[in-house]
Design brief:
CATH architecture of the domain at 2-243: 2-Layer Sandwich
Radius of gyration: 22 Å
Number of strands: 24
Distance between the termini: 53 Å
Strand content: 15-25%
Shape: globular
Structural class: alpha/beta
CATH class of the domain at 2-243: Alpha Beta
Oligomer: single chain
Largest sheet: 7 strands, mixed
Length: 499
């Protein structure tokens, strides 16, 4: 039995074919996609057609590579970048480009939604979270204010992975996991927060699709696609979910004590929870996961973009970047980077910019700057892990996923900054793998041959012990001081109005 997992991400779409019995990935394909250009600062958008085109090409490549094996494909699931806003007309056509999770143009609307219910404490009590600009809710209020014609013409509101599901099946649905990242849900009770919907618009609820469990499939693959790809028999399309929800499955993060660090376009740290736990400070997000439990998540907006800018600035490939970072001692000779190139979500600074602080004649060169940037990005994530521990999470090991997890230098740095052992996985694309596992899990249940998720994860998620990195005590002390400096500098520049 084979299943396909699709990860429709921010800068690329990945598709893989999983042999469920052996746990082996038969092929992995990647198709890049870009943002729309020449938008005002803070606006980040993509055409939904981009995701479909990329998914179609990636799947086609996979099917060519497995040849006649495609006859054994039984199921598909889609992972998608969270929080994006897709609006459709009465014929299911996008009315405009999708505003993405890293779009910070809605900061004013996010502040308004938090204050209209008295304060952030009240918002947390109603939904489980504080509203941040990246969520879908303030995007909707922004749309109504700035593009009222598009808002009035909107018949259906979807998230990115829902749109890919619509292409696959013709069905418009929204499951609990990805929906919990809209900011519109009471996450603990898995239902829409009606006062919030009504504040944005009295008819907003009518534009939202049916909300359902992540364990229920969306439907069957459309006949046109099944014939185009030469697939035999019915192919089930599982619910799919957000990239973090399926990344949790794809890294084995389905029980207490597990913790995943995803190093992709954004930096995220998340952990399974058997009960809903809201962060009273509003810094850690409470989401539904893709197993009908919950996920506690810390997110920084700037990771992949900073790495890409470094490569472009110094004309380095990834190997050259890693080699240069490795030549510099921890602390980058006093050079400190505040990684807020696109604003930031943790801390909540949507209009902030990045800072290189402490430049001297000794450290003003490419290797020191590169070391400082990677350290700054990692220490930003370090604050998130501290907050997760404050909420009662007790990680024994960090499992890394995403492109950055392939870097030995970065793995060692993360272990030093976090003070926790780190390991990579044999399949670094955790979200795509998690989607394929969810697809197989759903298919088995629908066919009356249920298999436990734990059993599937044991068979398919393989830790790469060669990548394990242990924290080094001498470096931990250095990074404790640097983290305190980073936080202090951020506070002081923010209070003075310089961020």
């Amino acid at each position: 039995m084979l299943s396909i997992g699709i990860d429709s991400g921010t800068t690329s779409t990945r598709a893989l074919v999983l042999d469920v019995e052996s746990g082996k990935v038969l092929h992995l394909a990647r198709q890049p996609h870009a943002f729309l250009e020449h938008l005002p600062h803070g606006h980040v958008e993509q055409s939904p057609a981009t995701w479909v085109e990329a998914a179609e090409k990636a799947i086609a490549e996979c099917l060519v590579q497995i040849g006649d094996g495609k006859k054994a494909i039984t199921s598909i699931a889609v992972s998608g970048q969270q929080h994006g806003l897709v609006i459709l007309d009465e014929r299911n056509r996008p009315l405009r480009a999708a505003k993405l999770w890293c779009d910070t143009s809605t900061a004013e609307e996010a502040d308004e939604l938090n204050t209209v219910f008295a304060n952030t404490d009240e918002m947390i009590a109603r939904t489980g979270n504080v509203i941040v600009p990246g969520y879908t809710a303030p995007k909707l209020l922004w749309l109504k204010r700035h593009e009222p014609d598009n808002f009035s013409r909107t018949k259906t509101i979807l998230l990115p992975h829902d749109y890919v599901n619509l292409w696959l099946t013709g069905e418009r649905l929204m499951e609990h996991g990805d929906a919990s990242g809209t900011g519109l849900m009471n996450v603990a009770e898995r239902k829409w927060c009606e006062p919030l919907l009504n504040y944005i618009d009295k008819e907003l609820a009518e534009k939202l699709p049916v909300l359902h469990s992540s364990l229920q499939p969306v439907g069957l693959l459309r006949d046109a696609l099944r014939k185009q790809w030469g697939l035999t028999g019915e192919v089930l399309v599982a619910a799919g979910s957000g990239d973090n929800m399926l990344g949790a499955i794809g890294t084995g993060n389905i029980e207490k004590g597990a913790m995943t660090v995803s190093l992709g376009s954004s930096g995220t740290i998340y952990s399974f929870s058997d009960k809903p736990r809201s962060d009273t400070k509003g810094e850690i997000a409470l989401f539904c996961d893709a197993t009908d439990h919950w996920l506690l998540l810390a997110c920084t907006m700037n990771l992949g973009v900073a790495i890409e800018r470094l490569q472009r600035l110094f004309s380095w490939d990834i190997a050259a970047l890693e080699a240069n970072v490795a030549t510099i001692a921890p602390g980058a000779a006093g050079l400190l980077f505040l990684p807020y190139l696109q604003g930031e979500r943790m801390p909540n600074l949507p209009n902030a910019s990045g800072v290189l602080h402490g430049l001297t004649g000794e450290n003003m060169d490419p290797p020191h700057i590169a070391r400082a940037v990677v350290e700054g990005l990692t220490m930003g994530l370090g604050y998130g892990i501290k907050r997760l521990i404050d909420l009662g999470i007790e990680p024994t090991e960090l499992r890394l996923t995403g492109g950055g997890s392939k870097s030995a230098v970065w793995r060692k740095l993360i272990a030093d900054v976090f003070g926790i052992p780190v390991t990579g996985l044999k399949v670094a694309d955790g979200a795509a793998l998690g989607a394929a596992i969810q697809a197989a899990w759903t298919y088995c249940h629908v066919k009356g041959k249920p298999i436990s998720l734990e059993e599937l994860v044991r068979a398919c998620v393989k830790v790469d012990r060669k990548t394990r990195a242990e924290p080094r005590k001498e470096n931990q002390a250095i990074y404790r001081e640097l983290r305190a400096r980073q936080a202090d500098l951020t506070r002081k520049l923010t209070s003075a109005g310089y961020l």
